[in-house]
Structures are given as structure tokens and as C-alpha cells.
From TrEMBL:
Keyword Iron: no
Native source species: Chryseobacterium koreense CCUG 49689
Record GO biological process: polysaccharide catabolic process
Protein name: Pectate lyase
Organism lineage: Bacteria, Pseudomonadati, Bacteroidota, Flavobacteriia, Flavobacteriales
Segments forming a coiled coil: none
Cellular component GO terms held in the UniProt record: extracellular region
Keyword Coiled coil found: no
Cited SMART domains: Amb_all
Signal peptide coordinates: 1-19
Family stated for the protein in its record: Belongs to the polysaccharide lyase 1 family.
Entry GO MF terms: pectate lyase activity
Gene3D superfamilies: Single-stranded right-handed beta-helix, Pectin lyase-like
Length: 834
């Protein structure tokens, strides 16, 4: 009887999946990878995916390569040699594999392995020259769920198994394990529990037989909030990843720190990092920097408005034996450093310089640059040599800290829209030139042609038969531009794209707020990875705004929160509102509910969808009245802080004056100045009546506007104006006359006690404050939850349970709001992170 029931069960499973063939909706081949998408099959518990081609028949792929995106599934096949393939997908129901659907032929292309990284027959990374995995390679998958628990036994490790990504890499650091290692990231990976100063660090003690690849799967893999740092490593490859919002101590998306050789970084998307401490780091620090490393290739990377794209060289002190290749990179409205070179010999070819507001490539400190076949579109200064030519044209002080010059050889580059470029001319420009434009690519430049400062010559490394360059066939600039736009960045250009407005962005080096907002709001559309616990997706949908947790000062309205329902949801219900001055307004046509108002008490609420199909989906929000700061003086010093206020009190947009001035105030010597122009805007919100003091150039006696009212700086005031009785609320400082601003100070009127501190009836202390690493909490009440918000209201850390301390070491310096939920109520405190 039992046997009969088993047979009956199998027959039922077969009947269930009969006629439910997988419907493949999309197929595509790319660079040594291919993928298919298909519609979900009702009742399928998993899918088996196989590929065939190039001598392989029905080889099954790993589970983490198969992901659900709700309305479709996607499987990516990695490690394919160039050629034609098919991919087969079958649904599994009740443990039984059903009928399979086979894709049409998919063409896979090879990666371009040209460059110094492959010098001497080396093959960086875990893949062979044909793109297939090396023999004995080990593959680990990193997902958001497994990043801290993935494990591997590593030869020579301090303890085995090594648990967590960085711990595994620490095992390879000793150079005792020569197995090729492929680390594959799946989806959006945020900070890991264990990192090294905010980075994942790759080392292998320069073991020549070791090789490591760090790569993304598909088009939506991200290192979000952290960077990759490579040191004392050989044969490393980093590819197909998106890097964004790193706040690591080094500040680079990818950084070759020291002691590296044969490293290949390619096909990555480089987005903004978090602001650094310097005025020129509002977009983050370096996107892809190289120091004290050689035999490196950086190719097919897409730089999205990077402030400083590629630093090459720092304190090497010699030009011997340092070789790097840059090719087919898309410098998409990035500002400068493409690259900025000290000491190195750099082959820079077939790149697309697309709307670069400061300069293209820069040569200093005896470096030799060979630029060929590049396409420059509206790149302000395509090429610069330190302290000569365009670099100091018009009396400028130079771009590169007055360093000695290097030398640039240029051949067959296309330029349009540049502000200035001057080629060497023995008669007209024998000294003040930007590059030597060769008559042929194999021309040897005479050692009589020297940099103006330092007397450095071109080393003609490109004509050395020992290197790949001499016999390389280079794309013409137009072909290179097309190829770059097709292949630079991740598979299919990645899942997150931004279209620049050339009319504005070509010349602007300000942070693009739209692009930054897109990065901050990014949420992966991936639902789950096969093999991990799936998330049941309802046909009802609710879009939750990213400002659904807000802390505001007393008497201040919240920023409107807009929830949007969709799918099979027909309405929403609300609990917790209206209450305490907060209301909800529905728009049945737009399918939105807007939460707004000025809170008189803390409010928590929930929005839940309603519909006849699907299951309800809920989203919540919290509104907290923050304790008023007991700080009465707020200062911004442009000399020490640039445009970024470390306390987040002042919001500043505008341009710094590149020429220093000089004045004194409050016992300080001030030199750095913000230009008061039409576009300049400084604003802050006061909670008490205040006096505003502004410090300009000592000779300035012109006009300035505060809240639209024009004030005149006293002629005998040494450039200083103090404006009393600034009312409570938003204060805006804008241009009256053209001026330079050194210093801003707001002082609250402490005689007005009407807006004094609001205290809670809960005894809770946090210490130390300011804090560097850990904040401790002391309370008579039981703490149930701790939330830390940025000053702009974004949740940056959340801790559940009766915690006695909070690790804040990963927070950037600035001012935060801590919200503590206790069994006696809710209390907030201001926290300053050093």
C-alpha cells in the first residue's frame, strides 16, 4: 500500500508539472558570461539550470546563480569561453524535475586581456586566458544573508574553517594556499560585520602561484558602503561590480595600496563614495587609485561623475619598473585624474573622455604617459603637464601642487569642445606645451625635449619590444568610443543608470544631487537567491518612502511621507493616525496616502493594503520630536572644513575660490574662501532668535542677502558684519554683491528662555559624547530599541534589545539623533561622532 501511494504521489507530481514548461522570456550573451530570464512556474519549489556548448553538455550551474525577481527568474552562467551556447531550464515540483525548455543559441564574447597586467605570461584571477575557471579553483558565493557566515578551509589559516568573507581572505593573506579563488557577489552587499577600516582587503603575500578573482554576478551586484583594498598581492582580478557610498577610512572604491603586481580591474561601475573630510571630497575620495604597484591593467570601467577618478603614484620616488595600462574606460562626466600620474609609465588608450569639467590626464614627477586613440568630448583640458603650458596659462598657480613635470606623448586622439590644448612646437611652443604630438605611434621622442620644471624627459617605454604596446593594433577613436559605450561597466551596463545633462554637467564639478539621491535610495529588485529561504511576494504592493522615520524639532512640520499602493491592492487602511497633529490624506486616483503635519508628540503609524486578491502588505512610520540642542554657538570655518560642515548644521552649495585670501577673526587666521555667486546658497535652521556673523575679505564693503533682505557690510568693519535678531526658522544666505566668505557664526540669544530644552521624564544618559568608537547607555528603564538617525533624518543604525552599548565606529563624523525606546517611553539625545 505504501509503495502504491508513493507511485501515486509521483504520478500526481508529474501531472502537476506536465504542460507547465518554463517560458524563457529573454536570453543574452556577454563577455564570458550568458544569462536567461523566465516566467515563474506555479508550484515550482526550485529550478535546475544547465548549459551546453564548446564541448560541454548539460553542465548544471550553482544555486546562487539562480535568483528570483518576483515577476521573473534569472540565471547567469559564468566562466564561459567565447563561442555559442544554449541554456536549459527545468522547474522542480515535489522533488521531481519537470520538462525543460532550451534557449536559442547564445553568443558569448571574450574579454579583452590587453595590458600590462598579463605581462610575462601571468594570468590574473581565477580564470584561464579563455575565460574558464582554472583547475582546482574554489568558488564562494557572497549574498546579503551569507556574507558573515560563509566558510572555507584555507591552508595556512590561523584557524579553520575560516568564517566570514574577510576571515577567509585573511587566510589567503599568508600565501600558503595556492588554489585559485573566485569570490562571487550576488546582489546588494552592505557592510560586513568584520572588515578592515571599512574595506575588504585582498592579500596573498605576492604568491606567484596564487590567483584571486572578486566579481559580481549579473548586472546588480554592489559593494555598497565599503571598498576593496589590495595590498601585497599578485594575480588579482576585480570585475563586474558596482561600487557606491563607501565610507571606508581609505575612501577609495578600489585601491591598490602597496606592493601589488599583475592586477586587472575591469568592467566595474564606479559611483560616488560618501563625502570625505576635505573640501574636494564631496563625491568621495578616489574611485580607482594605484600606489606602489606595477603590471596593472584598468579597463572597461565606467566612472559616473567621479570627482577624482584615478590617482597613479604617490611617494614611489623612482620611475623604474612601474607600468600601468588604462584602456576602454568611460570617464562619464568625471572631473579630474584620468589619470593623475607621478613616476609611472602609463599607456592610456581608447578611453572615452566624456564631459570632464577640470582636466583629462596629468603628468608630474618624471612620469611618462602615452595617450593614443582616445576620444575627448568637452574635456576642458585634455592633457596637462605640471607647471607648464595650459597648467599655468593665464597666471594660474598650477593644478598639481607645483610638482615637477613629466612628459606626455600623444598620437591619433580625437578632441572636440576642449578649452585649450597646445602641442609641442619647436618654434612656437618649445616650452609651454601640454603634450608632444607624434607623427607616428612608434616615433621616439628626443631627450632634448624636457619638462619645464624638473627637466624630465619621455622614457619611450612604448617603443620597447619587450612590451605589448609596440605591436598592438589600437582602435581608432570613434570605434573606441562606440566600444566603450557598449561594454564599459557591468553586464548590460548595470541595473542602475543615470543620464547626464551635457549642457549643465559637462562644465560642472559640483555633486549631482539627483545621482546621489538615486544611490542613497537604491533598493535591489532581487527577491531571493535559490537555496536561501524565499520571500513570499504578494500581488498587492506598497511602496514605502525612504523618509518614513523622521525626527524633527518642536514646532517643526515633518517632510511629507508619501506611501503608494499598487498591484491588486485597491486601498489602504491606517492605524496610529490621525494623531498629535499628524494627518493622512488619500488620493484614490494616484493610489497614494500622504502623511503630513506638525507633531505635538511622538507618533507611530502603520499603512496596510486592502484587496480581494493577494495578501496585505504593511509599512510603518515613526515621527519623533527631538530634544532641542543645548548648543548656542554654531560656526563654519571654510579654512578648516571647506564646504562640508562636520556638524551638519549649515547646508552649503557653491564654489570655493581656488586662490587663497587672508583675514583674521576670533583669533584665527583664515585663508580659504567660498565665492558668493548667483548659485551660492547657505542655509540653516535656528531654534532660537540669533545673531548671524559673516566674515568676508577685509576690504569688502558691499551687500549680502539674508532671508532675501539686503545688508551692507560696514566700510570700516574689516569685512565683518553681525546681523542681530535673526528670527527662529530657516535662515538663507545668498549673494548681494560678488564676495568671498571665510567664516559663518550663529549665536543664539540665551536670554530668551521660551525655547529652552524640553526634558523627558525618563532618566537616561549616554557617554562618552562626543564618541569615537562606542557609546554606553545608563538608564533605570529597560531599553527595547535604539535607532540612530542622521541629522537629515535617515536611519543609519538600529539595535534591538536591552543594549548597554552601541558600536558607532562605522559612522562618519558628524551630528546624529539617538532615539531610545524604553518600557517607560521614548527619549531622544543628540550624539556627536568624532
Amino acid at each position: 500500500m505504501t509503495k502504491f501511494l508513493s507511485i501515486l504521489s509521483l504520478m500526481f507530481a508529474f501531472l502537476t508539472i506536465s504542460g507547465q514548461n518554463v517560458n524563457i522570456t529573454q536570453q543574452s550573451g556577454s563577455l564570458e558570461t550568458a544569462y536567461v530570464k523566465w516566467d515563474p512556474v506555479t508550484g515550482a519549489e526550485r529550478y535546475n539550470v544547465y548549459y551546453s556548448g564548446m564541448g560541454i553538455t548539460d553542465r548544471k550551474i550553482d544555486d546562487p546563480l539562480i535568483r528570483s525577481y518576483g515577476s521573473y527568474f534569472r540565471a547567469d552562467v559564468l566562466g564561459l569561453a567565447a563561442g555559442n551556447y544554449t541554456i536549459k531550464v527545468a522547474a522542480v515540483v515535489g522533488g521531481v524535475e519537470g520538462p525543460a525548455t532550451v534557449s536559442g543559441p547564445i553568443t558569448v564574447l571574450p574579454h579583452d586581456r590587453t595590458g600590462f597586467a598579463h605581462q610575462g605570461g601571468r594570468i590574473p584571477g581565477a580564470y584561464n586566458m579563455d575565460g574558464t575557471l582554472k583547475s582546482n579553483a574554489v568558488v564562494i558565493y557572497i549574498t546579503q544573508n551569507t556574507k558573515n557566515t560563509v566558510s572555507l578551509n584555507v591552508t595556512g589559516a590561523t584557524a579553520n574553517p575560516c568564517v566570514g568573507l574577510q576571515t577567509i581572505l585573511d587566510g589567503f593573506k599568508k600565501g600558503k594556499d595556492s588554489r585559485p579563488l573566485a569570490v562571487r557577489l550576488v546582489g546588494n552587499i552592505t557592510d560586513l560585520n568584520y572588515m578592515l577600516n571599512g574595506d575588504i582587503v585582498i592579500e596573498n603575500n605576492n604568491l606567484a602561484t596564487s590567483s584571486i578573482t572578486f566579481e559580481g554576478v549579473g548586472s546588480d551586484a554592489y559593494a555598497n558602503g565599503w571598498g576593496i583594498r589590495i595590498k601585497n598581492a599578485s594575480n588579482v582580478e576585480v570585475r563586474n561590480l558596482g561600487f557606491m557610498l563607501t565610507d571606508a577610512a581609505e575612501g577609495d572604491n578600489v585601491g591598490l595600496q602597496q606592493g601589488n603586481d599583475h592586477v586587472w580591474v575591469h568592467n566595474n561601475d564606479m559611483f560616488y563614495g560618501m563625502p570625505g573630510g576635505d573640501a574636494d571630497q564631496v563625491k568621495g575620495d578616489g574611485a580607482l587609485d594605484v600606489k606602489k604597484s606595477t603590471w596593472v591593467t584598468l579597463s572597461y570601467n565606467h566612472f559616473w561623475d567621479s570627482g577624482k577618478a584615478n590617482l597613479l603614484g604617490l611617494s614611489e620616488g623612482t620611475a623604474a619598473g612601474l607600468f600601468v595600462t588604462y584602456h576602454h574606460n568611460w570617464y562619464d562626466h568625471s572631473d579630474s585624474r584620468h589619470p593623475r600620474v607621478r613616476y609611472y609609465s602609463a599607456h592610456i588608450y581608447n578611453n572615452y573622455f566624456d564631459g570632464n569639467s577640470k582636466y583629462g590626464s596629468g603628468s608630474t614627477m618624471a612620469s611618462s604617459l602615452f595617450l593614443e586613440g582616445n576620444y575627448f568630448r568637452n574635456s576642458k583640458y585634455p592633457m596637462l603637464i605640471s607647471m607648464q603650458g595650459t597648467d599655468i596659462f593665464g597666471g594660474g598657480g598650477g593644478t598639481f601642487s607645483s610638482e615637477d613635470g613629466g612628459m606626455i606623448k600623444a598620437f591619433n586622439n580625437t578632441m572636440s569642445g576642449q578649452t585649450r590644448f597646445v602641442a609641442y612646437d619647436a618654434t612656437n611652443f618649445p616650452v609651454e606645451f601640454d603634450a608632444y604630438v607624434a607623427n607616428s605611434r612608434d616615433e621616439v621622442i628626443s631627450n632634448t625635449i624636457k619638462s619645464k620644471k624638473g627637466g624630465n624627459t619621455y622614457n619611450n617605454f612604448d617603443t620597447d619590444a619587450a612590451h605589448y604596446i609596440k605591436n598592438l593594433v589600437v582602435d581608432d577613436p570613434e570605434t573606441a568610443k562606440t566600444k566603450v559605450m557598449q561594454f564599459a561597466g557591468r553586464v548590460d551596463g548595470g541595473d542602475m543608470k543615470w543620464v547626464f545633462n551635457n549642457a549643465v554637467d559637462d562644465t560642472s564639478y559640483d555633486l549631482n544631487t539627483g545621482l546621489k539621491t538615486m544611490l542613497l535610495n537604491y533598493q535591489s529588485s532581487m527577491i531571493y537567491v535559490q537555496g536561501e529561504t524565499p520571500v513570499i511576494v504578494s500581488s498587492q504592493t506598497l511602496t514605502i518612502p525612504n523618509n518614513n522615520d523622521q525626527t524633527v524639532q518642536p514646532g517643526t512640520p515633518i517632510e511629507n511621507m508619501v506611501f503608494t499602493w499598487g498591484g491588486t491592492a485597491t486601498d489602504v487602511t491606517l492605524t496610529g493616525v490621525p494623531a498629535a497633529g499628524i494627518i493622512a490624506t488619500k488620493d484614490m486616483i494616484a493610489k497614494t496616502v500622504t502623511i503630513s503635519g506638525t507633531p505635538t508628540a511622538d507618533v507611530s503609524f502603520t499603512v496596510t493594503t486592502v484587496g480581494t486578491e493577494g495578501t496585505p502588505v504593511s509599512g510603518s512610520g515613526d515621527i519623533t520630536i527631538g530634544a532641542i540642542s543645548d548648543q548656542n554657538i554654531f560656526i563654519h570655518n571654510f579654512t578648516t572644513d571647506g564646504k562640508v560642515d562636520p556638524d551638519n548644521y549649515y547646508s552649503i552649495s557653491g564654489n570655493m575660490n581656488s586662490t587663497d585670501g587672508s583675514t583674521t577673526y576670533d583669533g584665527l587666521t583664515l585663508t580659504k574662501r567660498l565665492k558668493m555667486e548667483t548659485a551660492t546658497d547657505i542655509h540653516h535652521t535656528t531654534t532660537k532668535t540669533s545673531t548671524l556673523t559673516l566674515v568676508f575679505d577685509p576690504t569688502f564693503a558691499g551687500k549680502i542677502k539674508v532671508n532675501g533682505i539686503t545688508y551692507t557690510v560696514p566700510a570700516a568693519g574689516n569685512g565683518v558684519i553681525s546681523i542681530p535678531n535673526i528670527p527662529v526658522g530657516l535662515t538663507t544666505i545668498t549673494k548681494g554683491d560678488v564676495a568671498n566668505l571665510y567664516y559663518v557664526k550663529t549665536v543664539y540669544d540665551t536670554t530668551n528662555l521660551a525655547t529652552g530644552n524640553i526634558s523627558k521624564d525618563i532618566d537616561l544618559a549616554i557617554y562618552p559624547n562626543p564618541a569615537t568608537h562606542t557609546v554606553f547607555l545608563k538608564s533605570d528603564s529597560e531599553i527595547q530599541n535604539i535607532s540612530i538617525f542622521s541629522w537629515s533624518g535617515n536611519l543609519v543604525k538600529n539595535v534591538n534589545g536591552n543594549a548597554k552599548s552601541v558600536d558607532v565606529s562605522n559612522l562618519t563624523s558628524g551630528t546624529y539623533i539617538m532615539k531610545m525606546v524604553t518600557n517607560s517611553g521614548v527619549i531622544t539625545r543628540k550624539l556627536i561622532k568624532k
